[in-house]
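user: can you give me the structure for this one chain? tokens are fine.
assistant: on it. calling the predictor now.
[tool input]
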Amino acid sequence: MFIRNQDFSPDLLDLVDAAEHAVRKIAPLFPLSQAVAVNPFNGLSDEPIAVAAARLERSAGVHIFPSRAVQLGRIEKGEITLEDIKISRLEIAPTLELSDQTILETAHTTDFIPQAIPTVADLAAEHSGTDWPNLVTERFGAWAQCHFDTGQALWAQVAEQGAWTSWRDWAMSDLTPEIFGLNNFCETISHSQRDHWHAIGDACAALEIDRKAAPSVFHGLLCDLAGWAGLGRYHLWEAQQAQTHNTTLSELLAIRLVWEQALQARYAKEVGTQWDAVILRHKEPLRAETGHLIDAILQRAAEQASARRLDTLLAQAGKPTNLAEPVSCEAQLVFCMDVRSERLRRALEIVDPGVQTYGLAGFVGLPLMNQAPAAENRKAARSVEVPDSSLRIKEDGPSTDETPIRDRLLRAISRFSRGAVSSFAYVEAAGLLKLAPLVDSSQFHERRVVGYGPIPRLTLDPSSEAAADVAEAALRSIGLRRNFAPLVVFVGHEARVTNDAQSALLQCGACCGHDAAVNVRALSCLLNETPLRELLAQRGIEIPPETVFRAGLHDTTGDTVTFFSTDPVGGRKPQPIKWLHDILDQACDIVRAERSTDLPATPRGGALYARGGDWSQTRAEWGLAGCHWFVAAPRNATRNRDFAGKVFLHNYDFDYDPDGNFLAEIVGGPLLVAAYTNLQYYGATVSPQHFGSGNKLVQNVCGEIGLLDGISGRLRAGGPSDQSLFLNGQPIHDALRLVARIAAPDSAIDAAIRTSPKVTSLVEHGWLEVASFGQT
């Protein structure tokens, strides 16, 4: 808790503490340009799901389990058995006084519709007939859209003040509340404290919110702010990365409390008795009711069935070990562990069994920060769960001193064309030249392959020990230490879409919502350097002189692979890759045919190329829908098995990791990101209104930070949109929490889990299942 030295009473300090705890139960909302998977149950996944369900029903009226009709369907299909119910009951509620058969039969009952504890705005709306909750949301959003805008607004507001001060100044001249009957609103705001903590104290005193009621009240009001609260939490997350502090979210809480205070003052006689009862409800201890426990048991039983399906697939092989793989092959391709890569890896190995594939986190072990020569800001090319490092990129290629000037000039022209006044002059000057791009984009849906920039190289000297450390860590994390093929290709991934405001969610999550081009190109260039290979040889990693490293990029929308064929190979003779192009084309044909059966209105294999460039297409691809499993093992433990695009596949061989260091990195990085991705899709499926981003047909981009439904003031929470999760009203993603299997002894897995507090919490409270397999 960071508070400047002020006169804080003990009661106010209690409220500050309650606010700080409520703030940490909100999931951050990353800006659209770097949207990544976020655990929507942030701050709640440190308690069992039944308790989290009770908390969210109380605070937000949100139901976080699949409907009982869904569970009934699983039972009727034979997926959930009575034995699954028994195991789940003993795990979740061993003292529950209901038989397993009774729990099974509850799937036939209808779902309870939760109702959040009402706010003053809710109570005032009942008595006045004015929709105060919607008005509060609209006015809050009108201010917040201006204050938090990051470049979209034609005339941007200079946000030099904090959120509370900015809103206070704005609200003192906002007459809308008074027009709707909230008398003396502007005057009330003008008399409020300039310090937001003291404003919270005054509001709580007026509303009779004490330290017992405050945690529940505060969490409910933050949930009511939806995506705006998530944005405030993001600012706090950013500050924590820089080891500082940010009070934006607590200032937003102060704003929402002052609205409650103003409404309570206006409708005190009408809602006073009801509000007293509300405060008593907030003071009641939180506990999971029988209904929550039954839903948790049914859900856990469904996940037991999911784990059983995964174990059945993995049981088709003996003890996994890289030592059983062939000592030589034609090519080795290293893919991202993304579930969308699983189909391509499987198809590629079917087309040519002489090709080996590997899987790892998409940033390929390079936690980069990249800044183009003319760019104003750096962009991360690493997972948000991986700390920043000193690794930086320099760009080689046909760049001159004029390049940054040219790029800045082009960006200035772009801004001029979108200016509030200058846009009219620009169109007048450009005339019919502006019509051609519009016609082209509207009539021709072929995807544009944008340039990937000059050759990115690490700023490290290839002959330095630091460069050798980076390269060794990357190769060891993959499992590549010997038996290198003549051609090794690092294949990152991207999603070439032009019609999705949330396109960053389709990009590489391990690269902070960007494509992986910079990472795979930088690593391949580094590994082609002769001085570096000499250092690696001293460390026991001997790369044959004829081995060439290449970089490629898998477009997950059209399922094509692009090679960076002109990148340097360290003076070596380039290995021919036309044969690899040919077999990849065949493999991509197989994947497109497989995917076309899942996407609506798609001819077999065709039209996938065009979906990403079609402005009218709301489903360019399904993204990571169906991400249910995670496997860390040598490839021969998963090869020739059809996981149907549901599994994150990460290479790992315990025989080469006796101290468990790489396993700890996998658990604390890729596994955690996979779990968050799974929970994000889970949340948006079970409660799309609260955790999703709504209908793409009515979405409006807000300040480049998030999405609104039409002209409403409610910022969405940032999860996948409805079109990414549902088809004809039915979910295409099964709401199941992640099941992970690791080819390592239980003791090694337990030790790795303990190194990550976040993973430990997920496992201990049942949000993530991790177990060993293939060990004798």
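assistant: here you go. The CA atoms of residues 188 and 490 lie 61 Å apart. Confidence is low (pLDDT under 50) at residues 318-327, 373-378.
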